[in-house]
Specification:
This protein is an alpha+beta fold. The protein has one domain (49-263). Helices cover 17% and strands 28% of the residues. It has 6 helices and 13 strands. The strands form 2 sheets. Strands 2, 4, 5, 8, 9, 10 and 12 form a 7-stranded antiparallel beta sheet that branches. Strand 4 (80-86) and strand 5 (89-93) form a beta hairpin. The mean pLDDT is 96.
């Protein structure tokens, strides 16, 4: 949030602020989702597994490359914080900042979840979103954001002076440590900024501060993905519930989230995502 200015505007202020905005990364360069190929693959697939994520906790799930998975609201409005890793190398993980730069502040069908440098490849592509009708509301809010980081015990301690052990960062760390059979302090640095599934957020129009409002998700709503590499996913059911009031709480109403995993033919034309072809000069 910018403070009140201490310096008066220069005589050419109007000219300076009227500069034309330029989209940094033209979306035309991103491969387009083939809807017909996705629908054909969906028709031939079979559900092969599911993982129920308890409220205020996290669970790990695995999805082979070329297969689908869904995150589903099963009991009530509930926000989920999602981490994705390359199953063959957990250090290659979701890069929310670059994904935001490429696709915008909120993701939906056809957007891709890009991985960290130097790999910069699609880890997963969103293939369906039952909340795509929401768009952007009158406050500027949208659903499934890549703006926020994740609630964490360090920021909570900074702002309140209290220790809270079920922040999404804590939940994701414990779940990944259990999966990797490694101490929590070793895997904590692998936990990363998230896709806030079902979360409704935006920036206030006057101060441009990050805000949240109650999630519009209802039982049966889902966000569906196609794995573009072999994936390890970690999902936390946020302790803020629908995040309509707070996001690190033992009193907010919280619900579980369900992850469904499918097996079947990959969409026609789908290819395993390759890492960036960039080579450092010698």
């Amino acid at each position: 949030m910018k403070p009140p200015p201490l310096h008066s505007a220069p005589v050419d202020a109007a000219e300076r602020v009227s500069a034309r905005p330029v989209v940094c990364y033209p979306p035309e360069v991103i491969p387009i989702l083939d809807r017909s190929a996705v629908e054909s693959a969906r028709a031939a697939r079979t559900k092969v597994g599911e993982v129920l994520v308890p409220p205020r906790d996290a669970r790990v799930f695995q999805v082979p490359a070329g297969q689908f998975f869904r995150i589903i609201s099963v009991e009530g409005a509930q926000v989920g914080d999602l981490n994705l890793h390359n199953a063959g190398d957990l250090t290659e993980r979701f890069f929310s900042g670059k994904t935001r730069a490429l696709h915008g502040t909120h993701l939906s069908t056809g957007d891709r979840m890009w991985s960290t440098l130097p790999h910069l490849r699609s880890l997963a592509t969103i293939t369906d979103d039952t909340l795509d009708w929401y768009g952007y509301d009158s406050d500027g809010g949208g659903v499934h954001d890549v703006i926020g980081t994740r609630c964490d015990p360090y920021t909570h301690q900074l702002l309140t002076g209290d220790d809270y052990h079920h922040c999404c960062h804590s939940n994701l760390t414990r779940a990944l440590a259990n999966y990797a059979a490694r101490p929590e302090h070793e895997v904590e640095l692998l936990v990363h900024d998230v896709l806030n599934v079902f979360m409704c957020t935006g920036f206030t129009r006057d101060t441009h501060q990050y805000f949240m409002k109650a999630s519009p998700a209802r039982p049966g709503d889902y966000l569906e993905f196609l794995a573009d590499v072999d994936l390890v996913g970690v999902l936390s059911a946020c302790p803020g519930g629908d995040c309509g009031d707070e996001h690190s709480s033992d009193t907010a109403i919280c619900h579980p989230l369900l992850v469904e995993i499918f097996d079947g033919p990959s969409p026609v034309g789908w290819k395993l995502a390759e890492p960036s072809a960039y080579v450092w000069p010698t």
